[in-house]
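Hey, can you fold this one?
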Amino acid sequence: MQNVGLPNISLIVATDGERILGLGDLGADGMGIPIGKIALYIAAAGIHPASTLPVCIDVGTNNEKLLNDPLYVGVRKARLYGDAYYDIIERFVQGVRRVFPKALLQWEDIGRTNAYTLLDRYINRILSFNDDIQGTGAVAAAAINTASKIKGKPLSQERIGIFGFGQAGTGVANAIAGLMQSEDHVSIEEARRQIFAVDINGLLVEGSKHENYQRNFLQPKEAIADWPIDKDRAPNLAEVVKHGKITILIGLSAQAGAFNDEILQSLCANTEKPILFALSNPTARCEVTPDKVMKASQGRALMATGSPFAPVDGPGGKKIHISQCNNLYVFPGVGLGAVVCQATKISDGMFAASSRAISNMVTAEQRAAGYLLPSLENIRRTSYEVALEVAKQAREEGIAMIASDDRLALLMQNAMWVPRYYPYRFEKGI
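Sure. Predicted structure:
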């Protein structure tokens, strides 16, 4: 790190290459991800490139194709796990704290086994967050917040099903529960009971096998006691939607076509305006396409996707916009706000503030056209608004500088770098 030659690093994006997009374990070949993420920070939030550092922590790979590739540049050993892995990560974090003490560290595409452990272990020791967990949750919560405004119904009165309950699904659940708690003033326990988590083996119920990070969303057995189903197994997705009276359905399963006609019919029967998010990407893994959803709901559904989709036809020839739940709405502004206000940690409250800021940018006219998120065309404005609200929230929590709203706004504006390209040759009039 001392050889980097850039003493004022304020942003580090680090991966271990284990869970790269939908490609899996790419080992050292995952280096392109932190590079790309930093490019988005620069473009969307104006983080100066000279203050950024992309990192791939090479702890081996289990990808046999790469291990047998003579051109592979990474360590040709099986991937480390357990104490050996955490020892390397600890050395890395200590190095960051020593050489770049003011830097924000974003964990990126860390494998399911380690993602929550690293987030929990370092969230209070170094300015850090995990975009796959917290960023995904925040942008989904922003879209749901907008959908609730359109529906005119408190979120706490909705019944929410989440299909695919890995790190992204859990992040979305936590964000929604937090939003419900802050907006509707219900307890966090009450909020969690409104969320039905369905994983590969069905609904997560007390007593069923689960990961540690899923434990807060286990439904009590009495919640399904009167469901007319076989009690020897966990309810499947179709049974959860039907008997759980689900009104908001969110997919993070990477299973194409998982939301079939039966499930869509049950969802539409449960509410006048169903909310459906098919957040798996790429497009080939999307749980359902917008045209099928709009056909099943006669254009009544409020929908967002993980991949980009063109507007679809609604009633009377009206075009319905399909918002893309892209983390680009969240992480650049969170990073900018945290760095500029000199936050000592990134809290759940800061992500909740980012969700509110994003949702508040959607105009009444846009909501009428189906927008659940603002247009990405003006992403710099979105990043600025997110950064400002994040800084205000950090100030209120006592974990950042004490400055007025106007002062924070000025600091954010001045911190956003704008590239200017000058001609090599002098030309009159330029």
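The chain has a mean pLDDT of 94. Let me know if you want another pass with a different chain boundary.
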